[in-house]
């Protein structure tokens, strides 16, 4: 998505660039769940839709539904994910909803064929050790 090449790894805007993996691999699925080192509530979805990556909090801000499993639709050029639990919509680019809710979104960049997401915590495609207890 948006590339801000002037931003090096650092702590601006509440996050650092996290290396997720090769775009060629990540683009094979419509959505990947990225586990956050902050725990379940902070997990992030990495969507790949129409040639573009989007990162958004994975747990719906309504009641925690799994947005990775939501349907994606485009209306008037706006890509939206619909929560599988109560069908609330969220704009993939801004996190805004037709309801009053706002889902947190994160910047994504591509560099040397790799996908990076700007996030306050470590992100991993594999469950992180701290989460395996439950
Ligand atoms: S939990 Fe997502 S719409 Fe209710």
UniProtKB/TrEMBL annotation:
Keyword Iron attributed: yes
Domain of life: Eukaryota
Residue stretches making up the Rieske domain: 17-117
Species the sequence originates in: Amphiprion percula
Keyword match Iron: yes
Pfam families reported in the protein's UniProt record: Rieske_4
Keywords (A to Z) from UniProt: 2Fe-2S, Iron, Iron-sulfur, Metal-binding
Gene Ontology molecular-function annotations: 2 iron, 2 sulfur cluster binding; metal ion binding
Name of this chain's protein: Si:ch211-212d10.2
């Amino acid at each position: 998505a948006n590339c801000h090449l002037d931003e090096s790894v650092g702590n601006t805007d509440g996050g650092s660039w996290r290396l997720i993996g090769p775009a060629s691999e990540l683009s094979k699925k419509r959505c990947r769940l990225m586990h956050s080192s902050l725990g379940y509530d902070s997990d992030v979805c990495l969507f790949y839709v129409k040639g573009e990556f989007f990162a958004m909090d994975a747990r719906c801000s309504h009641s925690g539904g799994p947005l990775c499993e939501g349907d994606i639709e485009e209306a008037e050029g706006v890509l939206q994910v619909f929560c599988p639990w109560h069908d609330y919509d969220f704009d993939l680019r801004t996190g805004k909803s037709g309801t009053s809710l706002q889902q947190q979104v994160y910047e994504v960049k591509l560099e040397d064929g790799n996908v990076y997401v700007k996030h306050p915590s470590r992100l991993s495609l594999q469950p992180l050790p701290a989460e395996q207890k439950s």
